[in-house]
Amino acid sequence: MGTVEHATLSCHHCGEETDHELAYAGRLLVVTTCTRCGNSIERDVRRRYVTDLRQRMTSKPGRMLRRFRRHPVGFASSLPRTTVLKPWELLEEVRLVWGAAADTRKGEKRERDQH
Ligand SMILES: [Zn+2]
Predict the structure, then answer these.
(1) For residue 11, how far is its CA from the centre of ligand 1 (angstroms)?
(2) Predicted TM-score (pTM) of this structure
(3) Whole-number mean pLDDT of the chain?
(4) Lowest mean pLDDT among 15-19, 22-26, 57-61
(5) d(CA 104, CA 72)
(6) Centre of ligand 1 from the C-alpha of residue 6, in Å
(7) Residue 83: per-residue pLDDT
(8) Calpha distance 114→111 (Å, rounded)
(9) Residue 67 pLDDT level (bands cut at 50, 70, 90)
(10) Which of 15, 66, 93, 111 has the highest Cβ tally under 10 A?
(11) 44, 58 contact by CB (below 8 A)
(12) pLDDT in tens, 74-97
């Protein structure tokens, strides 16, 4: 699941500062999970992720990006080995980002571009 880091953050559920697991896709924070109660906050970072990805890709960015927007998961799994980004890593990131975005839609209001 992308890159995971730990940080001490305050949890609304626990009502105090606890150890949190931060799941990143590239440089973007996607999911924050309290390791004590399991309460997680997911962010819809799809737009920023695509922008970020553009900077990480070196060859034919426009064309690759159009394919990517249409079928993110299929695109990631079809990437050639020569790509700078490792396909399986990208696939994990895509699943993380799109999975979190799907969950945020279910919930209350959409969180906008927040860090
Ligand atoms: Zn908690």
Answers:
(1) 5
(2) 0.66
(3) 81
(4) 57-61
(5) 18
(6) 14
(7) 53
(8) 7
(9) confident
(10) 93
(11) no
(12) 777 776 555 556 777 888 899 999
**Distance from the alpha carbon of residue 62 to the mean position of ligand 1, in angstroms:** 42
Q: How far is the CA of 114 from the centre of ligand 1 (A)?
A: 20
Distance 2 CA to ligand 1 centre (A): 22
Count of all residues that appear for the chain in the document: 115
- pLDDT of 106 reads 66
Q: How far is the CA of 43 from the centre of ligand 1 (A)?
A: 17
Give the pLDDT score at 99.
92
Q: 80 CB contacts (<8 Å, ≥6 apart)?
A: 87
Distance 99 CA to ligand 1 centre (A): 21
How is residue 93 written in tokens?
A: 């990131």
* Cβ neighbours of residue 107 closer than 8 Å, sequence gap 6 or more: none
Give the model's pLDDT for residue 114.
47
Cα 15 to ligand 1 centre (Å): 7
User: 16 C-alpha vs ligand 1 centroid, how far in Å?
Assistant: 8
